[in-house]
Amino acid sequence: xxxxxxxxLKGLWDELPPFRxxxxxxxxxxxxxxxxxxxxxxxAVLFVLTLSNAIISALRKIIxxxxxxxxxxxxxxxxxxxxxxxMQAYTYSLYQKLGIFVPLIVVNCIILGRAEAFASKNxxxxxxxxxxxMGLGFTLSLTFLGALREGLGSGTVFGVPVVWESFQPxxxxxxxxxAFVCLGVILAGMxxxxxxxxxxxxxxxxEPQNAVCASCAGCNLCITGKKEG
Amino acid sequence: MREIINxxxxxxxxxxxxxxxxxxxxxxxxxKIEQQVLVNVQGPALMSVLAGCDNDPIAERKVVxxxxxxxxxxxxxxxxxxFETAAAGYSGDVGVMVGFDLDADRLVAIGITTQTETPGxxxxxxxxxxxxxxxxxxxxxxxxxxxxxDIDAVAGATYSSSxxxxxxxKALTVYKDIKPQIADLWPAS
Lengths: 229, 189
What we know:
Low-confidence stretches of chain A: 223-229
Shape of chain A: globular
Oligomer: heterodimer
Radius of gyration of chain A: 19 Å
């Protein structure tokens, strides 16, 4: 039970998809001009990720290794089309705002990354916990980034005015460059906070790059990084 | 060999299962999506060109000669119709919802539904200054003033303006074609 809880919680901070592992940046930057769009996109990813993790994990023993990527993509693509149809049928205005980024969930690295790194090697329950945790972390990150940009750029959060009267909204923040600036500031803030935490505990300061690689099998970047370090 | 067959079988089965799921979902959501598109894409324009009706034009729509016609009723009597036509603008089709008053035999108003014109230039055809010229216009001899008509094009957006005018002219032709049948389709209740 504790391991399932651990798999769920790691997606919320240690391996928070957009800000710690820096995966899935395309929708993170593109749709977060308002908090509502960020939340909608996050929920769509949460849904697809949890179900794809569950299905892939259930089928992991019968999927042949050589065609596993093709199988993962078919499963993810079917789920994304299902989400797209449901969004069109029930939340059409959100579907209009998210536009091309809903179909693009198929090629979102979080989906394939979790399928390859986790769901294809673990039983169903931990995989669902992993998908829920990662999806929830992604949703919260996008909503937070969306709220920040909407607040600074239009003076509202979820359409509700939040700033004082003399506040002059900076339209820059809801344009594309504003997304990069906000993302950079958040990443820097999180790194600084993590260093502060490590120092307080008296642990050696871990470089962000190594922390990021905690769960992956070992890409070139990671191996060379460790050799040098 | 066995390995290859195994791969083919598993991948085919997964694809077949996905296909079945999606076909059924598509069927199940088809009506709902159609309704949503009507309400969200054509709805706002429709309401502006059928002002004053007390029925639900989207729910009572009927297809006449391949054109979806929306009826406007007042106290159960059919007073107007609206339908959408499109013509080429500057970059892509300009879709126009055109409303007709059956008693006066005139245009009620028009509303732009879909367009991909240049923002700030061609999109000015969506401003009231351009659209109001069609209000109450008679159903023949509609053209841009540069072609001897009485509709002034938006300055700098001649292609977009003529796209809108062409679409309305198409609507006029359709209107004349279907007018004799209209009264029978929505009998007074």
